[in-house]
Predict the 3D structure of the following.
Amino acid sequence: MVKAIPPLDERARAKALARQLILTKPTGALGRLETLSTDLAAMQATANPSCERVTVLIFAGDHGVAAQGVSAYPQAVTAQMCLNFCRGGAAVNVLARQAGATVMVIDVGVCETLPPSDGLVRAKVASGTADFTTAPAMTQEQCAQAMQVGATQVKVAIDRDAQVVVLGEMGIANTTSASALLAAYTGLPVATCVGRGTGINEEALARKQQVVQAGLTLHQKSFNDAKGVLAALGGLEIAAMVGCIIAAAQNRVPVLVDGFIASAAALSAIQIEPAVKNYLIWAHRSAEGPHAALLDYVQVKPLLDLGMRLGEGSGGVLAIHFLRAACRTLNDMATFTDAGVTDKATP
């Protein structure tokens, strides 16, 4: 039997809110830090939430649709960047060290065989996806296997005491899959759903739009359920993130959603299991154009807007500091009584 996603703990939220009301500050003076702290209390089912122990899970996979010339970089960059992650040389590694977060790289579908390395989990389902303009990106079985990889890895992180998980990804051409998923799930125009990804020119952008439209047209009849959409148009790393999100929600672990690719995975997870939305924290608004449309569709407001469009989990790692600030101000500030400070007058 599949484990149910628990509802938010409203009693814990109420206790956290009650404490917010007696801390030495005007009510609401810390803005979103206050609502974030009570949201975390409801997620973690405690009036004293904590986000000190964080794991960044970077899921990696190649995409057959890269053959259509939709990326400014060759497919070999996927494996090269995975090695860079393992060596600690990427932006997400630098930001994770600053935040004291653990980084794990999970090979779900990289075409090349990655050598053993610290921080690398080899869980390859397939050597990349198929080109979705000619066939489904994944079989239903491959999609399910990739989702299970994500579920397994987040459970490993939780068993190692992770209190929060940051979603990261690596996969050349994965913005094309993310765009196709956004269009399929929302019905938004292809032009709205397709951005420049790695920085392609106008000609490549037009080709990318055509590629996404071709995938939608080819697989429309198989869009009978949310998992069917994911298998037809997604990526192995995207499916793994979906499984990660669902398993994290089942265990009351908040998930920091990074940029466009991670958000496409989150959108997919919401389509499959709507209750997961309660356990998602949207870290930042990516400069990748379609991300704004996705956030508007899901009706969420991200924490940050820094003009970033890197992926990797980089924006999610930056948001850790805000989660910790929310928890620490809730838990560590003095109350009016503790500090001997006069509360506001009662009318």
Summary: The CA atoms of residues 11 and 347 lie 28 Å apart.
